[in-house]
Amino acid sequence: MMQSGPGMGQQLPQQYQQPPSQQPYVMMQPQLQAQPAVWSQSAQPPQQPANADKVRTLWIGDLQYWMDENYLYTCFGQTGEVTSLKVIRNKQTSQSEGYGFIEFNSRATTERMLQTYNGAIMPNGGQSYRLNWATFSAGERSSRQDDGPDHAIFVGDLAIDVTDYLLQETFRARYNSVKGAKVVIDRLTGRSKGYGFVRFADESEQMRAMTEMQGVLCSTRPMRIGPATNKNPAATTQ
DNA sequence: CATGAGCGT
């Protein structure tokens, strides 16, 4: 039942266990002595480095409307490390907005969950998890893991079974600078909309792929490549 | 044919 890792120097006795269905939100967190809470709404400059050891919540998107808290608990609750989860709903229609939040008992757990589940196939079989770190205020959400600007291309004519991973690997086999790929998912059906995006770190590889990958087979259909509108407003991060 | 991305009491 209770795991204790002797290898890790964890000194926080986390022995409180509670059913997640009773309390929808558990905001109580043991405050670490070594690190004061810096994310209160005091006069903090927005130039805060995003170390954020206290972030234990994942954002999950591309949820279908029937995917409620019970479904998410089926997905994540078996680990016994979920402290709270919630699906955001429209207040008028009480319909799911297609995203939610999952909070775990530690940052290490959260990180492990992100790497384990992100991109994996969801139990319904039709789509893969879309997970990311949750942000607690608008402003940090645009920062992605990257070490430079990304150059994206539009990829259409995708077969419906093409996943992020397959699309990514199809390009990564020929281009080293592929940073990621995303297949756009229809929230109503949870299935692919038939197009997606591939991001490159190297602009020259992006240019090459625009012509070289034109008509190349991905799964069962030849791809149609086009330019992608850049949604990143020229982040000049040095 | 088509252009993603959505952050809460």
Summary?
With 238 residues, the chain is an alpha+beta fold.
Task: Report what the structure shows.
With 238 residues, this protein is of the alpha+beta class. Among the domains are: 57-133, Alpha-Beta Plaits (2-Layer Sandwich); 151-227, RRM (RNA recognition motif) domain (Alpha-Beta Plaits, 2-Layer Sandwich), CATH 3.30.70. It is 16% helix and 24% strand. The strands form three sheets. Strands 2-3-1-4 form a four-stranded antiparallel beta sheet. A four-stranded antiparallel beta sheet has the order 6-7-5-10, covered by helices on one side. The protein has a two-stranded antiparallel sheet with strand order 8-9. 21% of the residues are buried. The structure holds one DNA strand of 9 nucleotides.
What sequence of helices (H) and strands (E) makes up the elements? Answer: EHEEHEEHEEHEEE
How much helicity do the residues have?
Answer: 10-25%
The fourth-level CATH homologous superfamily of the domain at 57-133 is RRM (RNA recognition motif) domain
Report the CATH topology name of the domain at 57-133.
Answer: Alpha-Beta Plaits
CATH level-two architecture of the domain at 57-133: 2-Layer Sandwich
Mean pLDDT: 77
Q: Which term fits the overall shape?
A: globular
Counting H and I runs of at least 4 residues, what is the number of helices?
Answer: 4
Largest sheet: 4 strands, antiparallel
The spatial strand order of the largest sheet comes to 2-3-1-4
Looking at the chains present, what oligomeric state does this protein adopt? Answer: single chain
- Total number of strands: 10
CATH class of the domain at 57-133: Alpha Beta
Which structural class do you get from the secondary structure elements? alpha+beta
- Radius of gyration over all CA atoms, rounded: 20 Å
Q: What gap, in angstroms, lies between the N and C termini? A: 47 Å
Content of β-strand:
15-25%
